[in-house]
Amino acid sequence: MPKADSPVTLPVAELAPSKSPSVPCENLDAAIRAARQRFVARNPNSGKLFGKAAEYLPGGNTRTLLYTAPYPVFMKKGEHYQVFDEDGHAYTDFVGELTAGLYGHSHPLIKKTLIDTINNIGLNLGSTIAQETAHAKLICSRFHLDKVRFTNSGTEANLHALAGARKFTGKRKVAVFSGGYHGAVLGFWDGVQENGVDQDDWVIGRYNDAGLAKRLIEKDDIGAVLVEGMQGAGGCIPGTKEFLMQIQESAKKIGAVFILDEVMTSRLGPSGLQAIVGLKPDLTTFGKYLGGGLAFGAFGGREDIMAVYDPRSPGSLAHSGTFNNNTLVMHAGFTALSEIYKPEVAVEFNRVGDSFRTSLQSVSKGTKMSVTGLGSICGIHFSQNGQTEISSRESIEEDMPLKDLFYMELMENGFWINKRGSMALILGTPQSELDRFVECVESFLRRHKSLVSL
Ligand SMILES: Cc1ncc(COP(=O)(O)O)c(C=O)c1O
């Protein structure tokens, strides 16, 4: 695993894994009940904090994904590749802040950049700053964009990319795919957009169905296609080359703007997943780790499309955002991409991720568990019917209780993972921790053989 930064020696994990049950549990309900009892006994401080949080936040929560029953673990701090909870347990962090935490929790170069920025520059200057050009130039050259714009999140990046595409084509309808997630108001779970905006403007296809994508896109009223090269929140399901190329071709044929959402996937290689697959999207959206660990988003691509945002042109689109170019993120993001996540680091990091996933696939072979993903991003699945070929959200019925048990027991082994089953590696995680995770998964599958057998 490439180090977060070569001169730094990362501390060996002082994990406090508790003993997972050594007696095989044959009954899933009983196993979950027992795991929950152990959870409550292990995490009394989180329980108290949750009680307080629920007084002021609905469900004690301000980010739905982080809610878990009976209550979530409250983390107290993070260091390098580890997080530490309020009850004194240490975990190797495999959540990796859903891909944004690539550099870990205390990378010295990012820390230095943030402190220097605070000391020497100041926080919010309310003006254009030279550093935004530096970061824009770096992102344009790394991801082959003509022009780029910054936002505060991946959600905003997609909303602005869509607004730009609509302005450019004069058409409102957008083709998207079931299981796609493009931000807080842009989730298309099970073919339906919930909690969303522009409700009537979506045409929703099935992921990895190239024939259907062609039929849906090649219509007169489609102004844009928005797709992830690998569905992240939808289960870390990679798009096939055939599917993604079909989208590109169909969009081109009718003059629709092809927007590739690389908010998660741009870390999969030096120039993102698009370079690996050979795609040339009209616009690409970004976020997560490209802000160096701070709130960030960006969208960019073709000169003629991005020109709709040029304020020198009459009738241009407005693009607001108080913090779009804030000093901290412009400096931290630039340091992170130019000095830490260099092209060769990206290649090696994702090679390690591929080998980690292959090991997980190997130990879970012949069980209800399967592992999807690409490079440094993995998705853990447990299927109800033994389906282990996963090409779309519809292609698998997840066994949620089994997933729940996995989540709770792996946490007891000292691994911070999320209930959804998505994992994003952090730079500098020791190989021994990757190996230990694989061993613990193998032991989980052995321990619960009767529950996970096909
Ligand atoms: C593919 C994709 N697009 C967009 C977003 C939204 O990014 P943000 O949470 O920064 O708004 C996410 C977040 O997980 C994502 O995975």
How would you characterize the overall build of this protein?
The chain has 454 residues and is of the alpha/beta class. It has two domains: 185 residues, Aspartate Aminotransferase, domain 1, CATH 3.90.1150; 233 residues, Type I PLP-dependent aspartate aminotransferase-like (Major domain) (Aspartate Aminotransferase, domain 2, 3-Layer(aba) Sandwich), CATH 3.40.640.10. It is built from 14 helices and 16 strands. It has a seven-stranded mixed sheet, sandwiched between helices. A hairpin with a 2-residue loop joins strand 1 and strand 2. Helix 1 runs parallel beside helix 12, helix 4 runs parallel beside helix 10 and helix 6 runs parallel beside helix 7. The longest helix is centred in the last third of the chain and has 22 residues. The protein binds pyridoxal-5'-phosphate. Pyridoxal-5'-phosphate binds next to helix 5.
Total tally of structural domains:
2
β-strand percent reads 15-25%
Count of separate DSSP helical elements: 14
> How confident overall, as mean pLDDT?
93
Architecture of the largest domain in CATH? Answer: 3-Layer(aba) Sandwich
| Helix and strand pattern | HHEEEHHEHEEHEEEHEHEEHHHEEHEEHH
Q: What is the top-level CATH class of the largest domain? A: Alpha Beta
Question: The CATH topology of the largest domain is what?
Answer: Aspartate Aminotransferase, domain 2
Helix/strand/pairing category: alpha/beta
Bound molecules: pyridoxal-5'-phosphate
Strand order of the largest sheet: 4-12-11-10-7-5-6
Cofactor: pyridoxal 5'-phosphate
Keywords: Aminotransferase, Pyridoxal phosphate, Transferase
GO molecular function: pyridoxal phosphate binding; transaminase activity
Family: Belongs to the class-III pyridoxal-phosphate-dependent aminotransferase family.
